[in-house]
Design goal:
Elements (H helix, E strand, L loop, with lengths): L6 E7 L3 H11 L6 E4 L6 H5 L30 H5 L6 H14 L4 E2 L4 E6 L4 E5 L2 E10 L19 E2 L3 H4 L5 E5 L3 H12 L3 E5 L19 H12 L3 E4 L4 E6 L5 E5 L4 E4 L4 E2 L15 E2 L5 E2 L12 E3 L5 E2 L2 E2 L3 H4 L3 H11 L8 H5 L17
Parallel strand pairs: 1-2, 1-6, 2-3, 6-17, 7-14, 8-9, 8-14, 9-10
Antiparallel strand pairs: 4-5, 5-6, 11-12, 12-13, 15-16, 18-19
Helix pairs in contact: 1-9, 6-7
Bound molecules: flavin-adenine dinucleotide (FAD).
Keywords: Oxidoreductase
Organism: Cryobacterium breve
Protein name: Pyridine nucleotide-disulfide oxidoreductase
Length: 374
């Protein structure tokens, strides 16, 4: 099974933290022949982050004491150590990822886009912008930044998504933001600091306490502190009056955002949509079953329930009510997926125990839902 050099044991698609992290875990499996392709540059998504955007989870070098830096994707590395900052920008984190790939000689082919994936008797046949590839297994690590979610909103084309530079460019006067979770409040605090008056519209009022201690359902402490400071200026309004239903520009250059229930708010510039991202499975979409809410259904090994041998890594990972939307969460599965692939091919996977020692391997998902006592 391992004799044909033209067939990769596994191919990673995407070179963000999930793709590079999984490739690094796969390197710890004895004798695995792997490749990785990236349609842009390593860390492409982070290079596209608006320049003012930073991570909200902190980076800190706790590695020597069993508390691996929350944004590391390899047990022996720490973005805080290599970058010298605790809340990196996208460009800084892309620099960390590039350094990691270089140091550990991760075999990534940049500027190579996968356009089709076909399941075959041998595994997978993939067409890329640089030619075809055959692999026994595939790990989809294509991310979701390229798939901003557009809410059902009349006139949505008159707004800027929070993932774009336009949403972060300096504005004055009244600003309206639709969506009040992390990214909505991030861009709101940014514009309040710049002197604007901002109204955030979200009927689910995520700025209130939230459920439980899981940061996927509760605002980060950093955001809560920033919101408190922004509210103190008197120029931030958090409105849970209703769902935004439409955006209408007028001849004077104003924008009216209609709210369900009949009210409205006015903005002096294009409203901002902080409505998150969809899963963005690209050419792998048809190979995953839908969970019923747009996100892919996976088995306990993060493998497609439709297509054996196709795994998913990254922030689109969901199991029951668990969301793996932060680096420190989905990185727990790199070594697990690597071990599943390695064991199927009969390889020695003992090298992955170093990932467990570093607190970067969770194979029992029932351990993830723990609540903090206080
Ligand atoms: C504004 C913002 C703030 C965030 N803050 C935090 C935070 O504080 N802490 C945290 O843990 N997480 C945070 N996240 C989430 C984190 O950034 C994402 O989880 C992370 O980017 C996902 O990594 P990834 O490797 O899955 O995807 P990406 O980094 O998007 O990588 C996917 C790669 O796949 C490539 N690709 C896609 N399709 C193809 C194809 N067909 N062929 C070849 N290559 C392809 C893309 O070019 C891209 O480089 C934040 C996200 C955003 C948007």
């Amino acid at each position: 099974m391992r004799d044909d050099p033209a067939i990769l044991d596994t191919l990673d698609i995407g070179a963000g933290p999930a793709g590079i992290g999984t490739a690094l875990a796969l390197q710890a499996v004895e004798g695995l022949v792997q490749g990785a392709v990236e349609r842009g540059q390593l860390g492409e998504t982070f290079l596209q982050w608006p320049e003012h955007v930073t991570f909200l989870t902190p980076s800190f070098t706790g590695n020597g004491f069993g508390a691996t830096d929350l944004k590391s994707v390899h047990p022996d590395t720490s973005p805080a150590f290599s970058l010298g900052v605790d809340y990196p920008t996208g460009a800084q984190y892309a620099w960390y990822l590039r350094g990691l790939a270089k140091h550990f000689a991760v075999p990534v082919m940049p500027n190579t886009e996968v356009t089709t994936i076909t399941a075959t008797a041998e595994g997978f046949s993939l067409a890329t912008s640089k030619g075809s590839v055959v692999a026994r297994t595939v790990v989809w690590a294509g991310g979701e930044f390229h798939n901003p979610r557009q809410p059902r909103l009349a006139g949505g084309e008159h707004a800027d998504h929070s993932a774009t530079a336009a949403a972060w460019a300096a504005r004055s006067g009244r600003i309206v933001i639709v969506g009040g979770y992390e990214s909505g409040l991030d861009v709101a605090c940014h514009h309040v600091a710049g002197g604007a008056s901002v109204t955030v519209v979200d009927p689910d009022h995520p700025w209130q306490a939230g459920n439980g201690s899981d940061p996927s359902f509760r605002l980060s402490p950093r955001t809560r502190q920033r919101v408190k400071a922004a509210l103190a200026t008197g120029r931030l309004i958090l409105s849970d009056a209703g769902r935004a239903t439409g955006i209408r520009p007028d001849a004077k250059g104003l924008y009216t955002v209609a709210i369900a229930g009949g009210t409205a708010v006015t903005a002096d510039s294009r409203p901002i949509l902080a409505t998150g991202f969809g899963p963005g499975l690209g050419p792998a979409t048809h190979l995953f079953e839908d969970r019923g809410n747009g996100w892919p259904l996976l088995d306990d090994n993060d493998e497609s329930t439709l297509t054996p041998g196709l795994f998913l890594t990254g922030a689109a990972l969901r199991h029951e009510s668990l969301k793996f939307c932060f680096v420190y969460k989905y990185r727990q599965r790199f070594a697990h997926v690597a071990r599943v692939i390695g064991e199927r091919l009969g390889r020695d996977c003992s090298g992955l125990e170093a990932w467990r020692t570093a607190g970067m391997l969770t194979d029992d998902l029932s351990c993830c839902g723990v609540e903090c006592a206080c």
